[in-house]
Task: inverse folding
């Protein structure tokens, strides 16, 4: 993928073990193979995004195969639409979905996440792809360089996504529905007060192509119960009583419920 310098917007080239622009801004390619392209002023905290513990929990959970139906649905949607070309997975996490999709489509993949721990983990396992620590709000990617931009359980920034997608390129998002993980929520919260969500957003500059619901049940046991909690935003909201109730559970059957939306860039 053609990358741009996050400081001046000029093209980046690989020079030995770094990426550099004509204005001599230079970014090291880390030993694990990822590149840190997040300027300090874009960070709202010292380590933005998911923490090392969350990333490790997500890796263990996803490697258990529990969410493979989501990876399969994303792949099927891309294949049905005949999508080929450069894939950019925004909020890529530890890389599971992006790598799955790239393998199925036989296309090159770049994964971007604001969490350094996430891209470090992704680069350690999926070495064939490009992994960048950067913000979705300022993607270090040339205008029109992307054929398929994916965002799974992460952010949607239509203006920036429109800029990096080529005309006729696709944006595929997966959003958690209101009844996603109701079993888990029923254990950890006394009352369920979910705000209504807009699961079919209108995005300026994009035309909706298809919407589908992905819903399936799965059972986790042992440490996978805690891994499931740790990879959700509930890990920040849970109180001590809810946490104690979940610790008593050695087995949990739950339902994943998500919406997949595919858009074409105008
Ligand atoms: C719920 S996780 C989903 C990760 C992955 N897509 C998956 O489904 O396994 C959300 C991810 O979005 C990343 N993220 C949040 N805000 C972001 C931003 N502004 N730019 C890039 N990544 C962001 C987080 O660091 C985290 O890895
Ligand atoms: Zn530069």
Result:
């Amino acid at each position: 993928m053609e990358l741009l310098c996050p400081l001046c917007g000029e093209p980046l080239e690989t020079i030995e073990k770094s990426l550099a622009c004509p204005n001599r801004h230079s970014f090291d390619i880390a030993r694990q193979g990822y590149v840190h392209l997040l300027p300090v002023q874009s960070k709202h905290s010292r380590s933005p995004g998911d923490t090392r513990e969350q990333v490790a929990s997500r890796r263990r959970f996803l490697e258990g195969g529990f969410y493979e139906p989501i990876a399969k649905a994303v792949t099927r949607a891309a294949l049905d639409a005949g999508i080929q070309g450069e894939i950019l997975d925004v909020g890529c996490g530890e890389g599971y979905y992006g790598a799955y999709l790239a393998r199925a489509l036989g296309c090159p993949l770049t994964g971007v996440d604001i969490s350094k721990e996430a891209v470090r983990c992704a680069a350690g396992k999926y070495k064939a792809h490009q992994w960048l620590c950067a913000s979705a709000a300022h993607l270090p990617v040339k205008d029109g360089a992307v054929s398929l931009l994916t965002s799974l359980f992460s952010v949607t920034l239509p203006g920036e996504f429109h800029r990096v997608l080529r005309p006729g390129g696709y944006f595929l998002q997966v959003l958690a529905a209101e009844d996603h993980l109701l079993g888990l929520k029923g254990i950890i919260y006394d009352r369920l007060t979910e705000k209504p969500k807009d699961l079919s957003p209108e995005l300026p500059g994009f035309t909706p192509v298809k919407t589908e619901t992905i819903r399936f049940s799965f059972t986790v046991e042992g440490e996978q119960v805690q891994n499931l909690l740790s990879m959700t935003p509930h890990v920040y909201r849970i109180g001590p009583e809810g946490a104690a109730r979940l610790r008593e559970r050695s087995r949990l059957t739950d339902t994943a419920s998500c919406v997949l939306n595919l858009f074409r860039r105008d």
Residues 13-265 form a domain with the Rossmann fold fold (CATH 3.40.50.150). The longest strand covers residues 206-221.
